[in-house]
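Priority: medium. Attachment 1 of 2:
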């Protein structure tokens, strides 16, 4: 998404707006009258709270495993064994 042009980004945000995920607010700060501020509809956070919790737990688990990898190297574990264990935990 980093290489998208402004027109492409606008099209994505227009779709999210049409689906009710985000709301468009004009930027009222001086000198920024042509810009738009997008805010996430609070209902989206409520409706997807369970998924957000699951994702936060998954990320936390993965971060802990990543921290464990250097410790495995120090103790002499084979990198292939570490990769297999890591991949099986992620799945």
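Attachment 2 of 2:
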């Amino acid at each position: 998404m980093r290489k998208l042009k402004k027109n492409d980004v606008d099209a994505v945000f227009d779709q999210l707006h049409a689906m009710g995920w985000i709301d468009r607010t004009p930027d009222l700060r001086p000198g920024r009258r042509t810009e738009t501020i997008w805010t996430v509809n609070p209902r989206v956070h409520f409706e997807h709270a369970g998924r957000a919790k699951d994702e936060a737990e998954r990320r936390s688990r993965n971060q802990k495993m990543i921290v464990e990898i250097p410790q495995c190297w120090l103790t002499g574990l084979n990198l292939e064994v570490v990769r297999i264990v890591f991949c099986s935990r992620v799945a």
